[in-house]
UniProtKB/TrEMBL annotation:
Any one of the GO CC terms: plasma membrane
Keywords associated with the record: Electron transport, FAD, Flavoprotein, Membrane, Oxidoreductase, Transport
List of catalytic residues: 279 (proton acceptor)
An annotated Gene Ontology molecular function: succinate dehydrogenase (quinone) activity
Protein known as: succinate dehydrogenase
Protein topology in the membrane: Peripheral membrane protein
Organism from which the protein derives: Acidianus manzaensis
Family label: Belongs to the FAD-dependent oxidoreductase 2 family. FRD/SDH subfamily.
Native organism taxonomy: Archaea, Thermoproteota, Thermoprotei, Sulfolobales, Sulfolobaceae
Amino acid sequence: MEKLSYDAIVIGGGLAGLMAAHEIAVNGYKVAVISKVFPTRSHSSSAEGGIAAYIEENSDPNDNPDYMSYDTIKGGDYLVDQDAAELLSMRSGEIVRIMESWGTLFNRQPDGRVAVRYFGGQTYPRTRFVGDKTGMALLHALFQRVSGLDNIDFYNEWFSLDLVRDDKRIVGVVAMEMKSMNPVFFKAKAIVMATGGMGMLYAHSTNAYINTGDGYSMALRAGAALKDPEFVQFHPTALYPSDILISEAARGEGAILINNKGERFMQRYAPKKLDLAPRDIVSRSIITEIREGRGFPGGYVGLDLRHLGEEYIKERLALAYEAALSFSGVDATKEPIPVRPAQHYYMGGIDVDITGMNSDLIGLFAAGEAACVSVHGANRLGSNSLLETLVFGRETGRAVAKFLESHTEDSNSLDNEVDKIVDDAYKYTKSESGVHFGEILNKLRNVMWDEVGIYRDEDHLKDAISQINQLREMSKTMYVTDKSKTYNTEFFNALELRNMLDLAIVIAQSALNRKESRGAHFRTDYPQRDDDNWLKHTISYLKGNTVEITYKPVRMTKWKPEPRVY
Ligand SMILES: Cc1cc2nc3c(=O)[nH]c(=O)nc-3n(C[C@H](O)[C@H](O)[C@H](O)COP(=O)(O)OP(=O)(O)OC[C@H]3O[C@@H](n4cnc5c(N)ncnc54)[C@H](O)[C@@H]3O)c2cc1C
């Protein structure tokens, strides 16, 4: 098999991957960025509402970085590592200024300063935005910046199969060019997993089709742990029935949620923060309204923007307006938008420290949604994720550069292991009969939605685990219809399913294990938060079919857990 050698490989061309690659490259190292789509098509480009930042000269005069950390920690239901939240807040203004200097044109106030809007759980408004297409603007600016660096090579439309390790040390990754289906061993001393989220595990998700959790599963198969894998975020306002995101920016700009009686029902659940309570609370409130018969036929509630006025809606919330019109036939200037919750973000991720380094495997790093640092704890606040990709993408890139300074020795040749990775991929898809992979995929997505979703309990989680195990077994004899050796997308989709099945079992087992309710993990059989027993991170490994769970303490600096009321 062909071999290519780099100092570091970044898997993922979204915001986190590009920022990490930038830092490694400007420190003089040779980097490859491998991405299964062209970088600017990464899910980062779909981010709508904005990026949170405390900017001294342009924030509310009463605000400060401590308030921002506090909001993040309380929003995450105290499972947040507080040193990480403090770093996120401290670096937020600087990173937004850098992105501005690299060409992101943020919306302005009339006096020329950067505009700001409220997002859920914020004591003071901190979200900076480019209309409701913020991710697109950031990703294009960053891609343009890194494209100018000589020591970064891009491998676009290349699919990473698995990491290669020599005992406890990462030595590279096997990836396949999707067009020629030619596998290559990319040798490197450090690998950054910046592979983004996993929304496709759920029947309803706002995520792109490429978000299949490949990075989590590659890390698990290589022997690294996931941190807090039971914590999955459901966004309250996905467009009914297509599940396209209607950004929290809409509520930030003043939109309100109403039930079939026309009531502003959030008054019942979060009397102070109302529609801008954190996402876990608003999602559960919507489901409760629907279950108790106050939803609209089909199962949704209304998001009412009408009082904002046509001109304002079309300028500030253009994407929401266009999506509602094109995909639900609703003119948001005249009628409420039909919305319901859908999977949106993954708080769990590859277990890394504040520098992005994993402690199971030497040379493994992760950043962005693929990582769990943890800044989001049990529930992420809106607009903190774009910020995390850039702040921790940069921290991780710097840590890799430092790591490379002291790790100069060459690794052994591991030809057998490399060949086995490609053989396993083909073996996985070679059956002629059995079940089509698409059938397993649909079943998996429904099981996760029905039984490992917004509301959870022991019976459903046990049933989910048993069903996922059956699907894992079935997948051993599944087939793909397309046998071609050029750009076989069905083959790659089947490999994505393998990743989804590995991740699903870890999520479901970890959710069964945590016997309390915290943030987005809501157990109807254990409805209270239990700090005495559960104020700790779940650390989950996958050994064959068995999920092994240990724990790590939550790092506290100055905020003691208190009741989470809004
Ligand atoms: C619709 C939507 C709107 C959002 N709006 C906001 C918002 O307004 N504010 C906010 O803060 N957050 C928002 N988020 C969340 C935020 O956009 C993401 O969490 C963040 O952009 C993730 O960035 P990333 O760099 O970690 O991953 P991504 O941008 O998802 O990039 C992942 C990369 O990994 C590559 N990859 C994955 N698997 C493989 C593989 N096997 N081989 C090779 N390459 C691979 C992909 O090609 C891609 O380049 C939103 C999310 C969605 C879905």
